[in-house]
Design brief:
single chain; mainly alpha; 4 helices; 82% helix
């Protein structure tokens, strides 16, 4: 990339944010927000897709494909050594976890 002021400003902001997120408590809070965001997204998707019955099968396929792609991205490089994975990768994995948990919970609620 060219060495412009805007590019330098964005790079400096990214470095500052990365340094700010090196604190373990901040990293944990971002990961917790990711799980809760996935849970909320699952509830919102299930509610929205459930209003119109034509979207149920399509949304199930899209969500299954999205979760498989997320698993592929997370586990292809880091495998079982997720402790040293970057924050973005672990956040994606935890968002997927919250999404799957929320969908299972919605399925149990609808089944009872």
């Amino acid at each position: 990339m060219q060495d412009t002021r805007l590019n330098n400003l964005i790079a400096a902001g990214a470095r500052a944010l990365g340094g700010w997120l090196q604190n373990p408590w901040r990293r944990t809070s971002v990961q917790l927000l990711s799980v809760l965001g996935g849970f909320f997204a699952a509830s919102a998707i299930a509610t929205t897709a459930g209003q119109e019955a034509a979207w149920d099968l399509s949304m199930a396929g899209i969500l299954a494909l999205g979760c498989e792609v997320a698993s592929w991205v997370v586990y292809r490089r880091y495998g079982n050594d997720r402790d040293r994975s970057p924050l973005l990768i672990s956040t994606l994995n935890l968002f997927k976890l919250g999404l799957m948990y929320g969908l299972f919970l919605e399925a149990f609620k609808l089944g009872s």
